[in-house]
Specification:
Strand order of the largest sheet: 11-12-16-15-13-14
Strand content: 15-25%
Distance between the termini: 44 Å
Helix content: 40-55%
Number of helices: 21
CATH architecture of the largest domain: 3-Layer(aba) Sandwich
CATH class of the largest domain: Alpha Beta
Number of domains: 3
CATH superfamily of the largest domain: Glucose-6-phosphate isomerase like protein, domain 1
Length: 569
Amino acid sequence: MSVPCFQLGAVAEAYKRNLSALAESRAVSRLWQKDLSLWPANGSRKHSGSETLNWLDLSGHLEPAVTRIVELASKLSTRGIQDVVFLALSSSSLAADLIPALGLSTRGVRFHAVSSLEPSGLRALESRLDFTRTLFLVASKSGKNLEMHALLLYFLAKVKSAGVSSPGSLFVAITEDGSYLAALATQYRFQAVLTESHGFRGRFSGVQHYGLLLAGFCGLDLPEILAGIQSVRDECVKDRPIERNPAATLAAFLAALVQSGFYRLVFRAPPPLAPLAGRLGHLVGSSSCKNGTGLLPFAGSQIADAKILDEFCAVCDIQWNDESLGAPPPAHVPFLSIPLKNIESIPGEVFRWELAVSLACSLLGLNPFADPDYLDGRDAAMKFIELISQRKNPDTSRARIVEGSLSLFVEGDLRHDLSSLNLEQALASFFALPGAGGYCAFLNFLWDTPDVSQRIDSLVAEVGLSLGIPVQSSPGPRYLHLLGQCYKGGPRGGIALMLTGDPIDRADVPGAGYTLADLRLALALGDMDAMVARRRHIVRLHLAGPPATSLAELESLITRALKSCRRPH
């Protein structure tokens, strides 16, 4: 396995203390023995006991799972399958994103990863598909979330409308034993159900996600992938010497960042590996961000600005073929470089991070397997969906400022501070809230088109460089699965700008009484309610009318607000 390179900088002493603590507590051997006393008790999960750590054994199930998906691919080739659509909104979607990003061969078919409910993006995909010759891989550990169910119903109806008498025959479920999705797969007579054991979070399924897709679907060398995973197991199972255990050293480093105030972890990676950086960030952030502490992950070229990295950010570089990712940060900035040997080494590297994050949370007194803040926003979204189904307006809050195509919604502590200002002044005051150690998240529920994405990315870069803090775009509702726990339960000091817009297309969810556009808005409103309830700094800007007009107004507003912004030093 590849050997990471550490620059400890300002966290050197905390790192040494953490290594000693891991050795004294025998944390490594206790992890492999599935000793849950390593972490605080968690009463919020239905499943308990050693099932929480069943992910430690996933590599033993990988070979038969890959064999099955290869057999399935061979069987379906006789049906003339031309396209495969991977439906997922959680961590498995990041594994799927890696396939087109790396340009991997996919057994002679076109591969598409879908992780959005936005109708215009779905319509663009539909125009390229022959639904009678398209296979859908539906990945969800439980299958219970509204978004996954809506996508499944939507595409089942599309396949049926194309004249396929048994539409389920073009669907494969990837889920856990006994899940709601597994039951649906039986109901709709799916072609197959690929399962893993239950009782643990999907973010700890990296071995399964990457193994199935890279080896089973892309035909990469399975023995080499398994050898890489086994190498990680062999090196990381050793309790002593602790300083030579790759999972323990990474755990000591990650925990030291939190203990020393470096709560913002910036991932830098070449563009083809951006989904892997997102996957590691999701694992670190969702596992550690709770009780107002943890590591917030960030990615994006604009965050690589030297002035931003100098302000209590830590940096993790994912190296690929010795490709340069920019100048290393200053000597006092904690820095980690991960050299990847080849594509086949990725599942083993993700597994090492899963082990390390579990150990780091033990050092921090956090439960990495709990998401205590995740469900509140979803409960609120359910209420909004019920209103929509009853043909009532779910957006019951009142816009505090309306100018042109833009409406500002703000509640909680910020309402009195911003409501009496004009839109430029209100946004300038909002941008002034985070200090030098803060951050900004664009919670983007706008239209899923290349032009809109590019323009939002440009705004994110502009805000980051102007404020001198990490800023990133988090597309919704996908971010709810990947970073929602981070923004609601993680460190304070940040701001969140939620962007919603009038839908271009609504796209009915068959039999549901609402549309995909309705569901997106309900999820956005639910998350905003949850953020406000936790006294997080969040405002929502709604863009009305044609996207071209409202986006131009948004760009002008943000530029003017940044010029007017007076931030504390």
